[in-house]
Amino acid sequence: xxxxxxxxxNKLLNRIKKADLYFEILGREKIFVAGVSGGFxxxxxxxxxxxxxxxxxxxxxxxxxxxxxxxxxxxxxxxxREFIEGRGFSFxxxxxxxxxxxxxxxxxPFRPCFICSRVRxxxxxxxxxxxxxxxxxxxxxxxxxxxxxxxxMFYSRGISTILPLQALFQGNFFIxxxxxxxxxxxxxxxxxxxxISDKFEGKCIFENDNKRETxxxxxxxxxxxDPQIKRNLKHALFGYNENFMWTSFKSIKSKLLDN
Length: 259
Hints:
alpha/beta
């Protein structure tokens, strides 16, 4: 089991190395703020960053931040803290009262996941600013990239998705995604090899009633019907052909589509 864990870890570390080489995910920064939820994504991200430091002789600090919005709380904060600090990183919890206030008003359009995500990102940036850190690490995987692509087409009327490295505030801060070349299934396999069977996060009341979950179910069914579809979608991320999009007709869109 230990040999399998090391072999699989090296496979994923190579993916992070590629992401860093081609997207400058980590660059030469010395301080990072990492958003953690207590789920498998953020746990694996922190564990791999610890071994990435060792393997590539890198010197950086990671400050793991859990944003508590009271909708999705930690099930075992002390164990999570031990997990993070055991890898030489620090852990802090920040309270988010803004999301709850907005969600309880149930303003239209009512998108609780978007509200929490927006406020969470704002708090992470504010904390990074205090530490004079420029990069915020999030545990999005390649599956999240594909889901977001369809989410935006289905519900936002646009074709866009998550970037490996995303500039904020004219490049004063960046969202970095170390797991961007890793699939969710690979992440879960690694967590199992580590012996992590439970998350440290609770279940949000809106978790199974959101648009992303709908898109995820649709994609999973497509992958079940034809596994090649997922491979094709990964390649499609690099295959945008503007010559076959309707962007040149954007100025007359309302005349063509609005009734």
